[in-house]
Amino acid sequence: MSHETRKEVIHTFQVNFFAMSRLNAFPWDSLDGEIMTTTTSDIITEILQKTCLHPICLKNPPSLKYRRRFLTELIKRHEMLAAEPLDALYEALGEVMCAQEEDMCYKTYLLPTGDAVSLAENVALISQGTTGLVTWEAALYLTEWALENTHIFKNKTVLELGSGVGLTGIVVCLSSSLTKYIFSDCHQTVLQRLKDNITNYLTNSDSSRASVCVEELDWENVSDEQLQRIQANTIIAADVVYDPDVIACLVRLLSRLLNCKVQEEHPDVYIASTVRNPQTYDCFKKELEMAGLRHVVMKDSVAQVFPYNRATTIEMIQIYV
């Protein structure tokens, strides 16, 4: 394995580890090949240093269960070698075996700039009656799209619907020259987690020139006064089309937002959705049509920044009047 390929394998391990990707997404075959070729544990030591022993992990660790499984798999690889036990590997496993699991963990997303965004997320996908305490795949896609289309946000006031734990908004604020970014959600626990995550990255960040705020936005009961006060030029959302029961009020809200002209222009609206249930997604599109809203599917490919299942059907649409 060349030096560059080796670096790439180690980096891929690091990116996947901090994002808590499924273990089968890691390049284990490449690691096995390197181990069998070199018959040393150097690469395992390097991977350990870039993951469980990295300063990011010490400050903002993935879940205990995840680290246990990862270290167990790494130990299996090391045992393929007829080498002395790697003390650091077993010490790291010993620490996580003795610790007590918590409801919250951290996922860290490494950006092309070299920056790392660590977000407090819940271990469970659904907790406290909401799915908003974790980052979903459509949000990762929307964030990748935003990184490639920073011009869309230049000098704009951006409203994000269903911000969840805040990945997309934080990255947009760090990478774009926008005027204002409005995060929004309606679940109290999500709003508090969102505020905590934002505080860590945007309040004291020199990179963030934009004004940032968090709005409690109940799609069904939002007032005209609140929408007029928001005055968004650009509206984005990810994974908000998953529950048939909320589609009608989401479309009504989008219609109201699109008719709130800012400087005599209708806002731009972009929605990224994981199509889990085609019927639900078709229902959303039909509801848009009945409300007199048109849409176009955005088919431009985006560069992969984050690790997630690329086989998942994710569609991005622009909605307009």
Automatic annotation (TrEMBL):
<dbReference type="GO" id="GO:0032259">
    <property type="term" value="P:methylation"/>
</dbReference>
<protein>
    <submittedName>
        <fullName>Eukaryotic elongation factor 2 lysine methyltransferase</fullName>
    </submittedName>
</protein>
<dbReference type="Pfam" id="PF10294">
    <property type="entry name" value="Methyltransf_16"/>
</dbReference>
<feature type="domain" description="FAM86 N-terminal">
    <location>
        <begin position="8"/>
        <end position="96"/>
    </location>
</feature>
<dbReference type="InterPro" id="IPR029426">
    <property type="entry name" value="FAM86_N"/>
</dbReference>
<dbReference type="InterPro" id="IPR019410">
    <property type="entry name" value="Methyltransf_16"/>
</dbReference>
<dbReference type="Pfam" id="PF14904">
    <property type="entry name" value="FAM86"/>
</dbReference>
<comment type="similarity">
    <text>Belongs to the class I-like SAM-binding methyltransferase superfamily. EEF2KMT family.</text>
</comment>
<keyword id="KW-0949">S-adenosyl-L-methionine</keyword>
<dbReference type="GO" id="GO:0032991">
    <property type="term" value="C:protein-containing complex"/>
</dbReference>
<keyword id="KW-0808">Transferase</keyword>
<keyword id="KW-0489">Methyltransferase</keyword>
<dbReference type="GO" id="GO:0008168">
    <property type="term" value="F:methyltransferase activity"/>
</dbReference>
<dbReference type="InterPro" id="IPR029063">
    <property type="entry name" value="SAM-dependent_MTases_sf"/>
</dbReference>
